[in-house]
Amino acid sequence: MADEVLIQVEKRYPGGGGVRGTLTIPLGGPSVTVVFGPSGAGKTTLLRCIAGLERPERGLIRFGAEVWLDTETGRWVPPQGRRVGFVFQDDVLFPHQTVRGNVAYGLRSMPRSERARRVAEILKLLELEALADRYPRTLSGGQRRRVALARALAPGPRLLLLDEPLAALDAPARQEIRRLIRQVLVRTGIPAVLVTHDRDEVLAMGDRMAVVLGGEIVQVGTVEEVWSRPASPAVARALGIENLWPGRVVGRDGDLVAVAVGDRQLRAVPSEDLQDARDVWVVVHPRDVVLEKGSWLAVEADARVSARNRLVGRVVGFVPEEHVLRVWLDCGFRLAAVITYQAREALDLREGDVVTAIVKAPAVRLIPHGAFEGTIPGREPSLA
Amino acid sequence: MDWTAIGVSLRLAFWTTVILLVFGTPLAYWLAFGRGRGRSLVEAVVALPLVLPPTVLGFYILMATGPRSPIGRLYEALTGRLLPFSFQGLLVASVLYSLPFAVQPLVTAFRGIDRRFLEAAWCLGSGPLATFFRVVVPLAGPGFLTAGVLSFAHTVGEFGVVLMVGGNLPGVTRTVSIAIYDEVQALNYAAAGQTALALLVFSFVVLVVVYSLRRDVWAVWPMKS
Fold first, then answer.
1. What is the tens place of the pLDDT at every residue in A29-86?
2. Other C-beta atoms within 10 Å of A81: how many?
3. Alpha carbons B83 and B73: distance in angstroms, whole number
4. Which end of chain B is more exposed for a tag (fewer CB within 10 A), N or C?
5. Could you give phi then psi for residue A8, rounded to 5 degrees?
6. Are residues A80 and A218 in the same domain?
7. Can you give the pLDDT at residue A296?
8. What distance in Å separates residue B149's CA from the closest CA in chain A?
9. Contacts of A53 in chain B (CB under 8 A)
10. Residue of chain B minimizing CA distance to A54
11. Do A109 and B121 touch (CB under 8 A)?
């Protein structure tokens, strides 16, 4: 297929480490492919191979019909010829240049007037106009990250590579950069590859994901696919799988938000970054689930219980853990609950039993997702 | 004061500095960023003038550039003149003698540059030469200053190599340090004292300027890796 980037690499460092595997990235529109894995798994090496900063011993990298690397034929396109934007983990802004100078660095071949116009445009896009004449050492972490993004975007890259773009930022800056990255990618239509070891970042930013473990790309797919069908127990462990379902905000209930999960509805306390998002990931920690034997539908709703969420399901299995027991329920979707052995005895819980799972609204976490679905407002093709 | 000798010294120091910056920069760049083998060998050769007595260096340069050597014969065939005991011959000797004073500050400055600055420039479409002039040179600026000033000052102050290779021809190879030596031999202490004082003040001022611009100037020696 021509409309994708194909990356097949094997890169080993003499002292150990490296990366191996196959990854494809769709082209022709905004999409974020998240490369996820623990520190030292080889994520950054993969990104550097795509940029042309590392030369794999074996491999094929094809951008649409363009071959960037083919070790069979010896073909190699240096970073300058790839037109890829790279945002380094700690920004690597040129210290001898102002913000404006940094952003203009990649625009050398443009005529002067056009360059000035382009720089102004990018500074506006990244909300940097007020900082244009400052030097990098006078900027905060969030500001520096914005300059790094602006610099990488200015020459109009065909692919944007982001190495841990939210790392080493405080919470407000993190939110701001996350919002800006989304906004910028949607406006410019540039596909992006984002490296992270942070699970929440995958859920918040990713459309597709690749899991890298111990120097191997072990699974590639949409975020939902990978999360719902991890390829191996190792992937599931890396993902820290618990209760995580795709949901949709369907309404408000006073201060609470109503979320549809499958054919059920849950109430949740809206988080700060939820805003107007409709598509969300719903996360419930198994320890926050309380089990009651029988179906509350059979008896009157118990007014003495404050919890908002009651899900009727059937026990499908038990997984013993240290000191506690993980109970798997089928409520139309899979739900895990962690209870004590005493609780199991007291309830006389067995497989096939009907139970009600009770979850407090504050224990239901919503992570907004789906930045690229639906309409794409204010898309500016001139930036692409 | 021997103005002719001062003129020869300044001319020699100027051209030595220019040649060293032009040829020392790519050499230092290769030593700092290069991947090829044999770098420690070249580093050792570059540093040799720091430990060799000037007379030893001068002797070998004299032999290498003499009319019987291939280099000397080639130069004679090209220009019709001899290298030893000429300004050009002295220049060759000076360049070799001051080589570590230009190359080592540059290597230290280049090695201090985070390689990712280069990578960031490459990803922005900058070729190797553009990256050198737009990123490496500005970031290594103090290194260039140190290299230039030290090459100049060291050349002004050399004695042994000049005596071996240049001889003592007024207006051609007779530098300040040789002139002072001659005055002392002739028991002409007043003239020697004047010129010596001028050289002392010059060297002191140069070092004060360099130290005020850059703290780690003695990164020059011993060599940092």
1. 888 999 999 888 899 999 999 999 999 999 999 998 899 999 999 899 999 999 999 9
2. 14
3. 9
4. C
5. -130, 105
6. yes
7. 66
8. 23
9. 119, 122-123
10. B119
11. no
Any domain includes B225: no
Q: Which pLDDT score is estimated for A163? A: 94
Distance CA A198, CA B174 (A): 71
Task: Determine, yes or no, domain membership for A383.
Answer: no
Size of interface A-B (CB pairs under 8 A): 55
Q: Where would I find the H helices in B34-161?
A: 39-51, 54-65, 70-79, 87-111, 115-123, 128-131, 137-139, 141-156, 160-161
Backbone angles phi, psi at A141, to 5 degrees: -55, -45
Q: Which of A86, A96, A106 has its CB closest to that of B139?
A: A96
Q: In the prediction, which pLDDT does A298 show?
A: 53
Per the structure, the count of domains in chain B is: 1
- Among B120, B125, B135, the residue with its CB nearest the CB of A88 is B120
Give pLDDT, residue A63: 92
Is A234 found in the same domain as A325?
A: no
> What are the tens digits of pLDDT across the range A131-182?
989 999 999 989 999 999 999 999 989 999 999 999 888 888 888 898 899 8
Query: Is residue A161 domain-resident?
Result: yes
Residue range of the domain that includes A313: 242-370
Q: How far is A22 from chain B (nearest CA, A)?
A: 23
Residue A125 shares a structural domain with residue A80: yes
A375 in a structural domain = no
| φ, ψ of residue B167 in degrees (nearest 5) | 75, -145
**ipTM over cut 0.85:** no
The reported pLDDT for the residue numbered B221 is 42
Task: Assess B130–A contact: CB distance below 8 Å, yes or no.
Answer: yes
pLDDT value for A148: 94
Touching B: A residues 70-99, CB under 8 Å = 78-80, 82-86, 88, 92, 94-96
3-class SS letters over A193-234: EEEECCHHHHHHHCCEEEEEECCEEEEEEEHHHHHHCCCCHH
- Asked if residues B16 and B89 have their Cβ atoms less than 8 Å apart, the reply is no
Q: Where does a domain end: A212, A241, A270?
A: A241
Residue B176: is its pLDDT beyond 90? no
Quick one: which of A150, A170, A147 has its CA closest to A160? A150
Tokens encoding A282: 């719903």
The answer to whether the Cβ–Cβ distance between B139 and A105 falls below 8 Å is no
> Do the Cβ atoms of B116 and A96 come within 8 Å?
no
The reported pLDDT for the residue numbered B219 is 42
Question: Phi/psi class of residue B82: alpha, beta or left (left: φ > 0; alpha: ψ in -120 to 50)?
Answer: beta
The number of folded domains in chain A is 2
Contacts of A151 in chain B (CB under 8 A): 120, 124
Q: What is the mean pLDDT of chain A?
A: 85
The CATH number given to whatever domain includes residue B35 is 1.10.3720.10
pLDDT band at A292 (very low <50, low <70, confident <90, very high): confident
Query: Which of A241, A264, A292 finishes a domain?
Result: A241
Distance (Å, whole) CA A155 – CA A261: 43
Q: Which two tokens stand for residue A61?
A: 């990298």
> Is residue B88 within 8 angstroms of chain A, CB to CB?
no
Q: Examine the domain organization and report whether A237 and A160 are in the same domain.
A: yes
Q: Which residues contact A21 (CB under 8 A, 6 or more apart)?
A: A8, A9, A46, A210, A212, A216, A217, A218
Question: Do both A225 and A274 map to the same domain?
Answer: no
What is the reported pLDDT for B224? 37
Q: Which domain holds residue B102?
A: 3-220
